Amino acid sequence: MRASIAAEAAGYPSVSIICEGFEGQAQATGRGLGFDGLPVSVTVGHVDAQTAEEMEANFISVNVDQIVHGLMTPIDPGSFEAVEPSALDVVATGSIDHINQLFVEKQWSDGLPIIPPTRDRVEAFITATGHDPWRQLGLAASSGRDITVWSVAVNAVMAGCRPEHLPVLLAAAEILADPHYGAEHSGNTTGADALMILNGPNAEILGFNSGPGALRDGSPANTTVGRWLRLYQRNVFGFTADQHDKATFGNSFRVVLTEDQSTLIDLGWDPVSADFGFGINDDVLTMARYNSGAIVGSVFGSSPDEVLPYLGDGLARITGWDLTHLYGLGQGHYRPLLVLSPVLARIFAKAGWSKEQVKTALYQHARIPAWRFEKLIGEWSNLTAGRQTLFDLTAAGHLSAPFGESDDPDRMVPIVTEPSKFVIAVSGDPNRTNAYVLSHDGPHGDYTAKAVDNSLSADLLCEVPPRAAT
Asked: What sections of 247-341 are H helices per DSSP?
């Protein structure tokens, strides 16, 4: 659709060829970018589940006529203007049961009970930190809607967030607005979901849990802020099933992962946010999207050499088709996350290891056979054109030397392009030797970090218009 929009903007007619089931997303994408009603041609069935002969026959019998008609029929980009409520419109009145049911019917809810975002509640939520409610933080690339302090607060009230969490939410909204993060990819079919990683001295003060159950719902701060993200993507970015959310399965929303600040200081380790230019005393929110997660349970050993093989194996096991983000869908973008419990982190620190040294060692241990790598990116998932071998890709300069040291299909190759691509967090129960690994969705939700400003806002407060007389 984005290529069609570029063509239409330049004065050339276009037709976008899409798969079945993506009609709603195509319409929403065009609408969000100011070109509603762009013509599409819908293929018959899924292209990967057909022979070349079946696909060719279907294309000739169905798509050719659709493409010709689309190219010959003028469209009016402004004739499909969508009507939706403005920021201060009252969209529902009645009992809390009625409001919750209406929000579900309108697809404004995630299906869990919400707190009705009354004007009084939203105003009070913002007033506590002094932000201008109409300040624009950016544009939702998928829907064309403004990202404002007011809309952040509306969804925060719905999710049950506390007013003191607004600075964290605003940092998250800034990440969603950042083109580097690529929020428009948040509904891709593999169903990757965002994880927010919170660092800094104020995290504990704000009530965020970094101890037992660090990735489980239950702690109000971690849970409600995590829920806010899914609601905001739904209501502002348009990620509903009939629009942009095309996840085949999907996951439940992820709570905020908070790093254990006191343990990091005690170990002399940098936080996750240091990978993106921040220091140990900075309050920072980092966000990325992950495809899958798995526990690495009951890690046994009292030295780095003893525990590294198991941790490396965990990272290798969680990594599958995601490897196409090394070459194909992304260029060296794959950055899996390893979450160490504090006791495991202490094993490395006791031996004098920094996070960087751990990453260097993982680079040697988290490896898979070359033949498996090649099948994952070019045969089993068919995501890299040409099905070239790693040896050939390295010879052509697309991958670094370790991937092409020989043409032996059984040689072990890395799962990242360099050690620094591993991301390591420290969180969870301080008395358990467990780790958690997550596979990263590359540029489709790339690591992006923003400072969290917990001070009172210096905005010139904009007065909310007075209520109309009743």
From this structure: 261-267, 304-318
